UniProtKB/TrEMBL annotation:
This is DUF2621 domain-containing protein. The lineage of its organism: Bacteria, Bacillati, Bacillota, Bacilli, Bacillales. The chain crosses the membrane at residues 6-28. Pfam families: DUF2621 (PF11084). InterPro entries: YneK (IPR020203). Keywords: Membrane, Transmembrane, Transmembrane helix.
Length: 142
């Protein structure tokens, strides 16, 4: 009984240390994104800036389209992904001096903001929406 309890304690300790390490990793990544860059703003500050500057440029259909595109992301990471993608979309819209957010800007921002390792899932999602990927191929190749 004593050895079984000891094994249980050691196992539980390893599980807890593992979970704490995983959580610490994600917290550290968030911390790094909050560190100010040369311009005095962090990555997250810029995302929030672009979202705030373009929030009145979004229509209901565009918001719904972004939600559809973000839906395959696991729920735990969906808010972070949505903010990153919406920030990139806002940045592109302001760079191109657009008056409204269009589906093309959403797709372009979504491709740029998505890590290259996830482009396979992104292409699948866009195919399911019957969106022609040919005009966006250069963005995938970057």
């Amino acid at each position: 009984m004593n050895t079984a309890f000891s094994i249980f304690i050691v196992g539980w300790t390893l599980i807890m240390v593992g979970l704490l390490a995983i959580g610490g990793y994600f917290m550290f990544r968030k911390f790094l994104k909050r560190l100010p860059k040369e311009d005095g703003k962090s990555i997250i500050d810029w995302e929030e800036y672009y979202i705030e500057k373009t929030k009145n440029m979004w229509g209901k259909e565009e918001k719904a389209f972004l939600e559809e595109l973000v839906s395959p992301v696991p729920e735990l990471f969906r808010d972070i992904a949505r903010q990153k993608i919406a920030g990139k979309i806002g940045e592109l819209a302001l760079e191109k001096k657009k008056k409204t957010i269009t589906q093309d800007i959403i797709i372009e921002g979504y491709i740029i903001a998505t890590p290259k390792r996830d482009h396979k899932f992104l292409k699948k999602t866009l195919d399911e929406k019957n969106i022609d990927l040919k005009p966006y191929q250069p963005l995938f190749d970057q």
